[in-house]
Amino acid sequence: MSDDTTPRETDGGHATADLPATGDHVHESSHEHGLPPMESIRRWFVTTNHKDVGILYVVTALFFLVFGGVLALLIRVQLLEPGGTILTDAAYNQAVSSHGLLMVFWFLSPFAFGFANYVVPLQIGAKDLAFPRLNALSYWLYLFSGVLFGISFFQGGTFSGGWTMYAPLNVPIYMPNIGATTAILALLMFTASVTVGSVNFLTTIHRMRAPGLTLRRMPLFTWTILLTVWMMLFAFAALLAALIILSSDRILGTVYFAATDAGGSVLWAHLFWFFGHPEVYIVFFPALGAMAEIFQTFTGRRIVGRKWFIAAMVLVALQSFLVWMHHMFLTSINLPVKTLFMATTIGISLPFDLMVFALIYTTIKGRIRFKTPFLFAFGALALFILGGITGVFLGAVVLDFEFRGTYWVVAHFHYVMVGGVTGLVGAIYYWYPKMTGRMYDEFLGKVHFGMYFVGFNLVYFPMFLAWETPRRVFDYPAVFQPWHQLATAGAFLLGASFLVMFYNFYVSLVSGEEAAGDPWRYVTTAEWAVPSPPPLENYPGRPSYDGGSLQFLEDMGPRPSGIAAADGSGETRSDGGVAAVDGALTGESHEESHASIWPFGISVAGFLVLLGLSGLPSGATLYVTLTVAGFGLGLYTLVGMARESQTFHGPSGPFGESWPFARVENTKLGMWFFLASDVVLFGAFIGAYVFIRVAFGWSAWEIVPHDPIPGLMNTYILLTSSFAVVLAMVAAQKGSRNGLVVSLLVTLLLGVGFLGNKGIEWYELYHEGQWLSTSVETSTYFLTTGLHAAHVIVGLVIVCYMLVRAWGGAYLDDDRPVEYFGLYWHFVDIVWLFLFPLFYIL
Amino acid sequence: MNTRLYTVIYGVLFVFATLQVAVEFAGLDYWTAFGVIMALSAVKALLVAAYFQHLRYEPRAITYVVTIGLVAALALTLAAAYSITGT
C-alpha cells in the first residue's frame, strides 16, 4: 500500500490535483472470509460481495440486451416491407411485447444497477451494502425472473399485448395462453427483486457514508442512484399491486380488469402509469449520473452549477409522480384533469433544461479529452435533447390526438430510453478498467461509438419522418417503405456495433494493458483511489473526508473532534458514540462474511412457485407439483437464511454520515423502508377499490359481508394480538423467557383465530354463491382482504420461528428481532383498521 | 416504556373499534357516518403507529418516509377517482 495518509481530493471538494493511485494490484486472499476464489464457479453462486454482484448484474443485463436486441432485429426485418411475413401475426405481437419488457426491465435498470452495486459503496466509503445477502437475493430474483420470462415463450406463446399490458387485452378471455401469465409473474418476481434492492440501497446510502461525506458532497452518480431507489421504492409498489391484481384476474378469476361496466381498462392505465412514468426517470437517472461523472472526468473540471444540478434532479424525482395521466390523454378521463397533467408535464421539462445546460456549459468551461466514455456520454446528451424536445409535443393534449399510437411515440421514447443506454455504454467503458484491472482498446472503442451513433440515428430518426406508421402494427402505408428500410439497416449497424464492444472487452480482459488505480488522471470520486480491481473490502484503512478530502485512517478510534450531528438536531457526537449503538448488534471484532447460498435457494423456490402458479388454473399435475415443491423449498431456504443470520456478519458500524437517520439502526431502517413501500402496495389496492366503486356508483355498491360483527370480532382479535406483541417485546427487554414465550404464543393463537374467523366468513359467502368472480364487489372484497390475510400468514410463519428460538432462550439479551417483527405486525394491524370500515361498514 | 401506557392505548383502540360499528347503527346520514368512521380509523392508526410502533420516539425522518408513501397512495387514489368524475 502507498502512504495511507496522503490527502486525496474528492468530489464535493475541488479537484485541483490528480488523484494518485493507491498502489499495485492487491488481490487479497478471499479464503478467510469463506468465499471461494474468483476462478471457482461456486464463488458466483454464493457471493454476497457488492463487486461480485455488480459484475453478475452487468453480465446478465448484457445477455438480456442481446435477447431483446435479437427480437428488435426480427421486428425490423418484418418491417422491411408493409405486412412482412418473416414472423406470424401472433409471433410479431409477442416479439414487440417482449422486446419492450426485456429492454426496459431486464436490461436497462439491471445494467445500471450493476454499476450501482460496484461503484456506490466505493464512492461513499462503505465496505459493502447494508444487507449483503439481500443484495445477492435481489440479483438471483432478477436472474430467475428472466429465466421465467424465457420459459413463457414455450407455454403457448408469451405475453403479446404490448409492454404496457393494457386492459382488457391482458385478461384470459383475450389472451388465454399460459405463457402470458408466466410473463406477468416473471415481472412480478422482478418487482420483488427491485423492492429488496431499493430497501438495501436506501439504507446503505443514507446510513453508511464515510465521515465527512455529507449528502451535499456526495458524488453525482451516487446521488442519481439514491434518487432512483427512492422513486423505485414507491413506483414499483404500485406496479406490484397492478401485477398482483392482474395475476389474480388470470389465475384466481377475479374481474378487476374484465369489468366492462366499471372502468377496468382505465384502472389498469392509472395503476400502470403511476408506476410507469417515474419508471422513465428510474431508468434514465443512473445514466445521467454516469454522464455527469464522465463529463467531469473528461473535461477536467467540476460540473457547472453542481448544487443546482442536484436540486433539479430532486425536483424531477418528486414531479415524476405527478405526471402519469399524460399517458392517458386519449382515455375517458375528464378534461380538467387532462389540462392539469398537461401543465405538470410541461413543468417537469424545466429542471431537465437546467441539467442539460449544466452539462453543456461544463464542456465549454473545461478541456475535453475525447476518450470513448466521453464520446458516448456526449452522444447520450445530444440524443436526449432530441428525445426530450419531441416529448414536449406529446405532452400537449391537442397534439396527442394526432401522435398517440404512432411511430412518433416510438421514435421519441427510443431517443430518451436508448439515449440513456448510450450514457450507460459510456459508463461500462468508464468503469471497465476499474472492474477488470485491464484497459480496453481505445481504437475499437471509438469504432464502436461511430457505428453505434450512426446506427442509432439511422434506425430511430426515420421513425419521426414516417411517424404516421401505426405503433405495434406491421402494416403501414407503402409510401413509408424507404424510411423503414433505412431504419432496418440502422438497426443492424447498431446491433453490429455491440459485437465490436464484446470483442474489445473479451480481448482486453485477456491481454489488455494493466490499468492503474486511476487510469483517467483527472478523477474526483473515491473508487479511483483504490487499486483496479479493488480488494475484497475496498479500502486500505477507514476512509474519511473529515479533512475536506479523502484520507484513509489506520486506527479505528473516534474522530478527533466532535462533529455536529448530521440530522441537524444540534447535538454533537463522535464515531465512538455511534459505535456503541451499531457495534452492539454483532460485536466489533468479527470479520465480515461474503458468502451465502440461501439467496440463490430462495430465488429457486420463488421461481418454482411462480412457474407452478402460471399453469395452476389448468389443474395439471406438473404445475401443482411445482407450486407445492416451491413452497416447501421456500420455507426451508427462508428458515436456512434466518438461522444463518446468527453467524453471517454484514458491515457493522461505526459509520460516518447517516443523515437523516443517525439514530436508527440499519435493520430497523430497512424494515421501515419496506413498510413504506407496503403502504403504497395496500394504498394502490384501496385506490383500485375506491376507483372501481366511484366508476360503479358509490352508493349503488353493495357491501359483500352481510354483517359487520364478524369483522368487528376480527378487529378485536388483531388489536389484541398487536398488544400481545408489545408485551412480548416488554418481556424480552425484562429478560423474562416465559413472558416472551407466552406472549408470542398468544400472538400466534390470535392470528390463527383471525384466519379461522375469516375462513368461516368466506366459507359461508362461498355457499351463498358469492365468490371471487361473482362480481366486481366480491372481487375487490376477496382479493384485498385476501392480500391482508396473506400478510397475516407471513407474520405467523415468522412468529412460529421466533417461538422456537425464544423457547431456546433467544432474544433475551437482544430484543431487536422481536421489536422489528412488531413493526411489521402492527402495520398489518393498521391496514386492517382501514379495510374493516371500507369493506364491512361503509 | 411502561406497560400501563400500552394497556391504556389498547383499551382506547378497543373502544374506538366498537364505536365505529355503533356509528353505523346510529342511523346518521351516510356521509356524516363515513366521515366519523374514517376519522376514528385514522386516530386508531395514528395511535398504533405512534406508540406500538413507537414512531413518537424515533427520529422524525422515519415518520416522513412513511408519510411520503401515504401521500403517494392518497394522490393515486384521489386523482384516479377524480379523473372519471364529470365525464
UniProtKB/TrEMBL annotation, chain A:
Residues 586-842 form the Heme-copper oxidase subunit III family profile domain. The keyword Manganese does not apply. It is a multi-pass membrane protein. Residues 44-546 form the Cytochrome oxidase subunit I profile domain. InterPro entries: Cyt_c_oxase-like_su1_dom, Cyt_c_oxase-like_su1_sf, Cyt_C_Oxase_1, Cyt_c_Oxase_su1_BS, Cyt_c_oxidase-like_su3, Cyt_c_oxidase_su3-like_sf, Cyt_c_oxidase_su3_a-hlx. The keyword Transmembrane applies. Residues 1-12, 24-34 have a biased composition (Basic and acidic residues). Residues 1-34 are annotated as: Disordered. The chain crosses the membrane at residues 53-79, 99-120, 141-166, 178-202, 223-246, 266-288, 308-327, 339-362, 374-399, 405-431, 443-466, 486-506, 597-616, 622-639, 669-692, 712-732, 739-760, 780-803, 823-841. One of its GO terms (cellular component) is membrane. It is found in: Membrane. Keywords: Electron transport, Heme, Iron, Membrane, Metal-binding, Respiratory chain, Transmembrane, Transmembrane helix, Transport. Belongs to the heme-copper respiratory oxidase family. This is Cbb3-type cytochrome c oxidase subunit I. It comes from Halomarina rubra.
UniProtKB/TrEMBL annotation, chain B:
GO terms for cellular component: plasma membrane. The chain crosses the membrane at residues 7-25, 31-52, 64-84. It comes from the Archaea. It is found in: Cell membrane. It is a multi-pass membrane protein. Its main location: membrane. InterPro entries: Cyt_c_oxidase_su4_prok. It holds the Pfam family COX4_pro. Keywords: Cell membrane, Membrane, Transmembrane, Transmembrane helix. This is Cytochrome C oxidase subunit IV family protein. It comes from Halomarina rubra. The lineage of its organism: Archaea, Methanobacteriati, Methanobacteriota, Stenosarchaea group, Halobacteria.
